[in-house]
Amino acid sequence: MSPAETAxxxxxxxGIISPRSVAVIGASDxxxxxxxxxxxxxxxxxxxxxxxxxxxxxxxxxxxxxxAAVGLAPGxxxxxxxxxxxxxxxxxxxxxxxxxxxxxxIITGKLADAGAEGAALQDRILAVAQAAGMRLVGPNxxxxxxxxxxxxxxxxxxxxxxxLKPGGIGMVSQSGALMGTLVSLGxxxxxGFSRCIxxxxxxxxxxxxxxxxxIDDPATRVITLYVEGLRDPxxxxxxxRRARAAGKPVLCVKAGRSAEGAQAARSHTASLAGSFxxxxxxxxxxxxxxxEDPAAMVFAADAxxxxxxxxxxxxxxxxxxxxxxxxxxxxxxxxxAGLRLARMSAAxxxxxxxxxxxxxxxxxxxxxxxxxxxxxGGLEACIRAFMADPDIxxxxxxxxxxxxxxxxxxxxxxxxxxGDRPLxxxxxxxxxxxxxxxxMRDADFPFLDRVADxxxxxxxxxxxxxxxxxASLPPPARPAGAGPAPAxxxxxxxxxxxxRLAAAYGIPVTREVLAVDAESAVTAAGTIGYxxxxxxVSRAVVHKSDLGLVKLRLADAAAVRAAFAEIAAALPERxxxxxxxxxxxxxxxxxxxxxxxxxxxxxxxxxGGVLVEVLAxxxxxxxxxxxxxxxxMLRRLKLWPVLAGVRGRxxxxxxxxxxxxxxxxxxxxxxxxxxxxxxxxxILLRAAGEGAIAVDARATLAEGLA
Length: 706
Description:
By secondary structure, the protein is of the alpha/beta class. The chain has a 7-stranded mixed sheet, with helices on both faces. Strands 19, 24, 25, 26, 27, 28 and 29 form a 7-stranded antiparallel sheet that branches. A 5-stranded parallel sheet has the order 2-1-5-6-7, sandwiched between helices.
């Protein structure tokens, strides 16, 4: 039995975040030191519990009695914050364990983050804590900022302000410095945080423990995460779904976007579906919003905290300003951001027509074209009309330098609160716009300084709405004829075996026969019908065409005999030659599946063929899928217009591609970790109504397949 299983009862995460008593080990009057800043911030921002400075060299610190050791301080101690040199850390943790401290927040670094010696010390510290039933946050962290209860258990310089505004944004970050930076940035724009936790090395408590807490925390309405790596990925997706069910959006920035885990194994899927791609798919499928920019994450979280949510995904935008230049340039930026202008209803157009010439009633809307200039009454009427328009999901107001900027800004918060759509106010002017910015702070209303930031927020709001819409759909349903899997060997399958597996799930595959000599190949070709394809079969060969083992468009028996001889010469150790119908299509797709440890079964679709890695135009999702999920993946492909029909080309059979992907997703879900990886590449997609067919396949199965 492990020390953790035999240890005394541990303090709950809630008791660590909202402690009644805090000891600061390494406390100092010097705010230039970690321990000095911790106690300074606790006092400055009004911590209401018992505060116990620990320093053997001082009788008092900040006017409070100081104690030589934590065991000499009056107990009980819920949380001890350790800001001591690494050489003294183990002894201080042992003292905390002996004194019955509930949890240690270890700011000290240079443990597992600094090599083998530090990792060994971290393991010893963890063992001491587990034996005593004491929890650890960190090490190498900047602690916990509980703004709601004014328990600032952190040395972050982001707390070095006169006042901190509480709000509904919770945060868990694997970077303490980034956490402080984002808190400071958010406060500049009037955003408010509930609890922010820096987890550091995660020796004991980890990101998922605090995510679990924030989901249940009544003070937290939106959750933000900065993730470098998950200690237990299997916990993560269920937590994201639980947050979605609780109505709490989760926004996430993931470091290490390169596909470090995607070394090409036997399949294209392995090289294209790396660990970041798997993380991205997990977040999207579980309803979380993945962003690239931490600042945009905070801006979007603030919008979700203080503004109404988008009614649903796919709606358009209304851009309104008194500057034609700002409205047009904003509208020009929408397509690259994946956003669109709304199509105004007749009622909206009629309202706008009361204030401007008919020729100017369009989006983006320049209020400078009002008959009487940018009058307040006209501005209010237009925004109210936008709020009621069924195709308008959000309103963007980029304000340029103009008279009465602050009074004009003050009009917007009441109007926005009347409606049920987000209004994003962008003060694009420099210092001369500070009065307008302050008007927004006074009204407790979000604002931004750059249109690009507003569009990043809108993309996040759209993703949040899409996740909400997806969560309302019924669960995936198995298509008729999907499974069960046939009995197959483990390890690398031949093309014919991989196709048997695909066909068992109703995925169309080419007609083919395995031939052992030239004459049996000729007989098979006559049965299948010319023209045919010949392929050399070997479990050891991944890319057959690179070795000259694929012969296309063989029109007669002589061509088949010649092709067989060439394959036999190139591949003396073979398991036969596959004689296959010569299928045709209008586009080549790849469908793939794999098991990703910690993330589960994943499927992939994209543009395939021999250039699949070069194109890298693929989408990934967790399995199994609904047809709507599969179609959404196709529509996100950069080359989607090719499938929809472009420049005189016919529209292709998207429904057949959707059906094949859904069936593959059930194959992946059923086989679970037994399906190491699988490629169907290419699948030839034909014109609408004519179907799709897999012409090549490979797969690797692990032990355990019945």
